[in-house]
Amino acid sequence: MIYLDNGATSFPKPPEVIDAVADVMTCYCANPGRSGHDMAMKMARGIAETRQELSKLLEIDTPERILFTKNCTEAINLALKGILHAGDHVITTSMEHNSVIRPLRHLERSGVQVTVLPCDRRGRLSVDLVRKAIRVNTRMILITAASNVTGTKMPLKELGRLALRHGILFMVDGAQGVGHMKISVKEQHIDLLAAPGHKGLLGPQGTGFLYIKEGIALRPLLEGGTGTRSKEQKQPCEFPEGYEAGTVNGPGIIGLGEGVRVLNRVGVDVIEAYEEKITGRLQNGLAEIPNVLLYGPQDCREKTAVVAMNIVGMNCEKVALLLNDEFDIATRAGFHCSGLAHQTIGTGDLGCVRLCPGVYTSEREIEEAIAAVREIAARVEA
What we know:
The mean pLDDT is 96. The protein is of the alpha/beta class. It has two domains: 2-9 and 268-381, Aspartate Aminotransferase, domain 1 (Alpha-Beta Complex); 15-266, 3-Layer(aba) Sandwich (Aspartate Aminotransferase, domain 2). Helix 8 (268-287) packs parallel to helix 11 (363-381). It has helices at 15-27, 38-58, 72-83, 98-108, 127-133, 156-166, 250-266, 268-287, 316-327, 339-345, 363-381, and strands at residues 2-3, 66-69, 89-93, 113-117, 138-144, 169-173, 192-196, 208-212, 292-295, 307-311, 329-330, 332-334, 352-355. The chain is built from eleven helices and 13 strands. The radius of gyration is 21 Å and the shape is globular.
């Protein structure tokens, strides 16, 4: 199969990731932080090494401020529900995933104020709009690093500087950015960063993390066993254990560490350049096909490896089904858990087909995908 669904989950995984998970499960799958025997200690060291690898990738000075979660959605919920109070104001955008929009709508019922700023038809945000939306009670600017519908990159550095000048927390949903583009909590002045392990970081599903800058207080999302202060009935708030209640996904986190190690060795800049090249070829090839509509930035330097398209006169779900059944090409069609983003780009009633190449996608596979779409589009013309 030609796999063009990397926006949902990256595939294939590096052999190092698979080997690491198998090794943990086979040789030392004990409970980290709960026992002092060799297997538990080895697991704890492996998890600590993953924090170190993430710190290296994202230029984080305090690895203990990286909290492991089961995915990016949990990380976002931990941040929003652990920081915001009634009366706080949050600025976000119309290109956000439901992992951002739905928790914010929930918090509105508790008195949190939310401003959703419009982006243009290609998913781009004006920094000036953000500046004008700031109020005296603005607590946080929360934005995706890149849209999961169009791949549009957001102006992180400019927004980070804006937030810093106004004493506002700057939070980034890195689901479509981490591993695909340069993200530095230092250069971009990021206070909170949420990301999954199973997308651009090349790790297993069931992994994710939240980075929270030193000095920011956070309420735990879950209470339970932490392996620390076990005689106390109140949840401890020590980093990281107080925010990782219960047994963490040790095999997955150690596998994630191997995926991040691959990125650190190859270089995100190299990956970004390659994905930009093959995405450009895919987008340009599709643009030449009659009746194919493309969404998002035309310049691939403005986007990650995402190409959103429709064929005029054909339902997007049918196009994805034909690509799968007749051409063995995996894509994703529909609204991508981002209804507001689809309204923004003009596909609120249509949805679209999303093709997401990745670091392991070959140029030959790109050409085959273009040919497949050309053949399907020709059926409409006939």
